Amino acid sequence: MDLHISTAAPTAAERDTIDAAFALLAPTAADATAGDRPTRSAHAGHAARSRRHLLLPLLHAVHDAAGWLSEGSLNHVARTLQVPPAEVYGVATFYAMFSVEPRAPRVVHVCDDVACGPSGGEEIVAALERDLDGGRACVVRSPCLGLCERAPAVLHQRAGEPDLSQAPATPPAVLAAAHAPADPAGEQAAEADRAFADTTVSAPQTRTGEHLRLLRRVGVVDPTSLDDYRARGGYAALRRAVRLGATRVIAELKDASLTGRGGAAFPTGVKWEGVAQSPERPHHLVCNADESEPGTFKDRVLMEGDPFGLVEAMTIAGYVTGATVGHLYVRGEYPLATRRLQDAIAAARARGHLGDDVMGEGFAFDIDLRRGAGAYICGEETALLESIEGYRGEPRNKPPFPAASGLFGKPTAINNVETLYNVLEVLNIGGGAFAAVGGGRSTGSKLFCVSGAVGAPGVYEVDFGTTLRELLDLAGGTRGTLRTVLLGGAAGGFVLPQDLDVPLTLEGARDIGATLGSGVVLVFDDRADLTGTLRRIAAFFRDESCGQCVPCRVGTVRQEEALARLERGAPLGSRETELALLDDLARVMRDASICGLGQTAPSAVASALDLGLIAAPSHSSNGHGGRR
């Protein structure tokens, strides 16, 4: 991109694509952005600011069609939305799934992250680099694609054709898909979706349906049928919510002690009450479905297998908080989940389950689905808001918190996918019955993403308080000799075999210096290369840092460099010096980073040091609850 973008013209196809997408989206633009954010500079007046949130959908539209974003297309988007070209370029280059340089029309994203890399991902990369036709398709190394239970995983991003996933993938199957004839009608994608869906319920527990609440419909209900969903109890929770009224629903959530399942564990009832009682209007609802934590895939399974459940849960949340629009932000790497949700939203809208008078109950609510484009940081709630508004996904300073000043500067309730499905269960059985499962701040059931060296990787639903040992037994036990378990994902920490009897609760994890985080349980046996795993985690955070603050922007780079030197056996000075550097970096990032990404980027490394999984410096303090 040179400095003369203002003179570049789009092709006729690019112009038509952008104009058609804008014509489809523009009628709802003003309603969605009611109220301007006073902290933003005013470019081209109120009308332009009301269009800014269409930037990401327009970039998706042209990128989907052309396979990349040319100078001319970016310039036409800038003119259409009346946004400065430099800002359009800044947003386009923020996301990993967008390219501003010409490239092959088919891009094969191969996961080489902590679960897929050692399980065949590296072999697929090597085969594609050797045999792929570079003119028609190219290969790109990818962070976690959220398909860890079916490792190794591949995502095909294809210009003018629907994206599709392959998992478990093999080099011949990936090459065949990359070289298959053009598929503009989506027939290959539909066939891949059917094959994928046949095995998407990978855990034996979810096949039996025993003792399941959140997963009870997954693998049982037809995810494309609203009638089947209703026949299996769908929309009973919404009816009960309306019968109880918003105030009583909030009371039920408080009685249930339901906490957020995205990692922060904030009380859901308190969050909803703060938004519902705010006198400022309009209110907004956001569902954070940008599940990008390495090792996490529970939300994907829910969205693919029970999409109407999320539509119903969001409708309840909108009713209770007074929001008339729900913004569903889905991870860009989840093509099947996206298609399922789009179809579910359309079906619900057609039957009056969304719209101006939901199910004849006298309230309005609709859902606006937004696709992410490859940015882990957008899982942070304020970065996600920035992305929806059409800006780079950089976290905001807090306070103010979103419940007071969130999307477009208005009161906003933000909930994780799993949290919203739990709302259905609270309304089905009552807050008191929900609180009777587990205890303390850990009530109800919890989804865990079990992968790595276990007999049956998959999503498992257990009651809070189940031990880690019981969970691993449910997943078929450990393959080989257990060395350690990464609990909570790349932003979590390691636990040792002697910790297997810890109860899986917020309190139990804290007592051993760990965290449940997003529910990742990644198992390593004695053959695992832990130093290489830590370096891959560090490289992930280096790549995903938004760069806004120095401790994270620089610290993640230095952390990855130190681990790479240790992996090569070429430390600067001595091994102890490198480990001391890692310890110091962890302190700085934890204490001085703006958001959770920088604060937790050193967690896994620091945990490994603390537990002696790699030799620790003699002066290193214990930052994980006195476990050494």
From TrEMBL:
PROSITE patterns documented for this protein: COMPLEX1_51K_1, COMPLEX1_51K_2
Domain NADH-ubiquinone oxidoreductase 51kDa subunit iron-sulphur binding, residue spans: 531-576
InterPro entries per UniProt: NADH-UbQ_OxRdtase_51kDa_CS, Nuo51_FMN-bd, Nuo51_FMN-bd_sf, NuoE_N, Nuop51_4Fe4S-bd, Nuop51_4Fe4S-bd_sf, Soluble_ligand-bd, Thioredoxin-like_sf
Keywords noted in UniProt: 4Fe-4S, Iron, Iron-sulfur, Metal-binding
SUPFAM superfamilies: Nqo1 FMN-binding domain-like (SSF142019), Nqo1 middle domain-like (SSF142984), Nqo1C-terminal domain-like (SSF140490), Thioredoxin-like (SSF52833)
Record's keyword annotation contains Metal-binding: yes
The keyword 4Fe-4S is annotated on this UniProt entry: yes
Family classification: Belongs to the complex I 51 kDa subunit family.
Protein name: NAD(P)H-dependent oxidoreductase subunit E
Organism this protein belongs to: Pseudonocardia alni subsp. carboxydivorans
